């Protein structure tokens, strides 16, 4: 089951602050937003190129949003098996056509947002040209309208309308529940809640593991339960049998940890005063809405305005106070709550999958440099790789220049009046600069940079063969395509890079220890 919240924030800061608490209270998995105030740093946040539409995976744990698409006016992402579209009001015709074209090849789909269109099909008094365009365009997608009832989703200055709409494929519509929430979120729009009960959307992608109290382990009982455990039959059947036996043994020999309560804790700055101010603001808004044709309307409207201002001030003061407490706590405990909060925000970004972005990362990490070719022949001597027939002319010049430079540094170091305590520890500089930047296998003149180590050095020829096979050659031009070709390709390149880095670090440590 996946629970969506749909809302237009009107670029209000207070609306987005209250949204953070609302998604926790209502256990929302994904928020479909129009006109957000600022990007959120919790969960996964994706928004359109113009910043008017956004999608926020805010569940605990967050739903994984894949196959993301960011366009001018809308954003699309796949949540489980469902393609979700967040659409705000903007250049209506062009955006709706782009959405329809993108959604025709995908199913099931959920299209939601502030579409600002009137039609009698969803309870409006009349059908406007904008509503007619929307109906004609979405009819080709064979989607169903989820809006039910006549409750307005927008209310301002005595005007009400139904402009926040939700459309879904028939498969989703049959197992969905749609309603308009009465929660106060400091926006002219009301929050719309949509619950999709497809079990494959989220629960199938998350393994539910039992937790146990390890201090309650009965070792003798556990050993008796797993006694005689062996592998029989095929691999899959054996794995399932072993997992079932171990699970049953753990259930019998240990006490399980009880799972219960509300795991959606309130936001850190939330308190009883803000909750009370929110309830009072909500009650004042209801009184104001019910008294539109009453002589008391002006009085109730002024009370609602005052309560609204008090709520904004209470949120602002609480957030400022909590931020100051975090700063004070950081001074006392550097790796406490403030450190964890910052690291959580820094580590939230998922791994990039865009080929263009990955290509830019690879080219930045492995810059192209002219490769110097030397006539080299390799042969084995006592199980050691030996190089012969190398042109030593360039190497001799480089070595001479380097020795001359180190001699100049040594003379300055001997004659200087600064750093005399360090001079007593390190009087001679040559041992500390004897590590040259050249590859010890390929000889001087060949820089041991990232490109040489990964793509050219024969020391790692075996790693190349394991990663791409005997008949392929790994180059900076095809490394990204190889990584994106399959999951095994990604893992092979990643393992190859890890092995190369470990070997280079090992060799560097050995050289430093030999000084």
How would you concisely characterize the structure shown here?
The protein has helices spanning 13-25, 92-103, 129-139, 170-173, 219-226, 235-253, 272-290, 297-332, 337-346, 355-365, 393-415, 420-425, 450-456, 461-468, 479-485, 487-513; strands at residues 2-8, 30-34, 44-47, 53-57, 65-71, 74-79, 82-87, 109-114, 144-145, 154-156, 159-161, 164-168, 176-180, 192-196, 212-213, 255-256, 377-380, 385-388.
Characteristics:
6-stranded mixed sheet, extended
Can you offer a commentary on this structure?
By secondary structure, the protein is of the alpha+beta class. Helix content is 43%, strand content 16%. It has helices spanning 13-25, 92-103, 129-139, 170-173, 219-226, 235-253, 272-290, 297-332, 337-346, 355-365, 393-415, 420-425, 450-456, 461-468, 479-485, 487-513, and strands at residues 2-8, 30-34, 44-47, 53-57, 65-71, 74-79, 82-87, 109-114, 144-145, 154-156, 159-161, 164-168, 176-180, 192-196, 212-213, 255-256, 377-380, 385-388. Helix 5 (219-226) runs antiparallel to helix 6 (235-253) and helix 7 packs antiparallel against helix 8 (297-332). It is extended, with a radius of gyration of 33 Å.
């Amino acid at each position: 089951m996946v629970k969506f919240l749909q809302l237009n924030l009107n670029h209000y800061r207070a609306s987005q602050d209250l949204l953070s608490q609302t998604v926790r209270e209502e256990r929302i998995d994904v928020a479909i937003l129009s006109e957000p105030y600022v990007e959120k740093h919790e969960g996964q946040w994706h928004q359109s190129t113009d910043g008017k539409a956004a999608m926020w995976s805010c569940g605990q744990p967050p739903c994984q949003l894949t196959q993301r698409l960011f366009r001018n006016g809308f954003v699309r992402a796949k949540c489980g098996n469902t393609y979700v579209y967040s659409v705000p009001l903007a250049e209506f015709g062009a955006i709706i056509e782009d959405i329809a074209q993108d959604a025709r090849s995908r199913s099931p789909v959920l299209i939601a947002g502030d579409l600002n269109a009137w039609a009698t099909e969803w309870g409006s008094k009349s059908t406007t040209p904008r509503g007619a365009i929307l109906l004609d365009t979405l009819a080709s997608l064979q989607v169903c309208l989820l809006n039910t009832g006549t409750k307005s989703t927008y209310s301002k200055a005595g005007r009400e309308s139904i402009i926040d709409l939700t459309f879904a494929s028939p498969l989703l519509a049959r197992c969905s529940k749609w309603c308009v929430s009465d929660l106060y979120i400091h926006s002219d729009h009301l929050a719309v809640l949509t619950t999709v009960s497809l079990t494959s959307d989220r629960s199938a992608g998350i393994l539910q593991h039992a937790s146990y109290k390890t201090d309650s382990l009965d070792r003798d009982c556990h050993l008796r339960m797993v006694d005689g455990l062996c592998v029989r039959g095929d691999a899959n059947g054996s794995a399932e049998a072993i997992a079932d036996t171990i699970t049953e043994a753990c259930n019998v020999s240990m006490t399980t940890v009880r799972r219960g309560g509300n795991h959606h804790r309130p936001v850190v700055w939330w308190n009883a005063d803000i909750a009370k101010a929110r309830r009072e603001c909500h009650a004042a808004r209801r009184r104001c809405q019910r008294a539109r044709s009453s002589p008391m309307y002006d009085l109730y409207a002024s009370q609602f305005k005052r309560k609204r201002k008090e709520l904004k001030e209470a949120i602002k003061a609480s957030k400022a106070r909590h931020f100051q407490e975090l700063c004070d706590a950081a001074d006392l405990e550097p790796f406490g709550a403030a450190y964890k909060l910052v690291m959580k925000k820094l580590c939230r970004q998922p791994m990039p999958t865009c080929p263009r972005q990955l290509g830019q990362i690879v080219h930045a990490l492995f810059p192209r440099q002219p490769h110097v070719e030397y006539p080299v022949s390799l042969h084995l001597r006592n199980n050691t790789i030996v190089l012969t027939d190398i042109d030593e002319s360039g190497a001799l010049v480089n070595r001479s220049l380097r020795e001359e430079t180190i001699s100049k540094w040594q003379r300055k170091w001997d004659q200087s009046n600064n750093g005399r305590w360090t001079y007593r520890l390190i009087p001679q500089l040559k041992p500390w600069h004897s590590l040259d930047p050249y590859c010890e296998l390929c000889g001087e003149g060949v820089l041991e940079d990232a490109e040489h180590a990964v793509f050219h050095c024969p020391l790692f020829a075996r790693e190349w063969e394991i990663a791409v096979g005997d008949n392929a050659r790994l180059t900076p031009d095809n490394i990204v395509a190889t990584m994106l070709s399959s999951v095994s390709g990604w893992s092979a390149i990643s393992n190859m890079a890890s092995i190369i880095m470990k070997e280079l670090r090992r060799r560097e440590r050995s050289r430093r220890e030999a000084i």
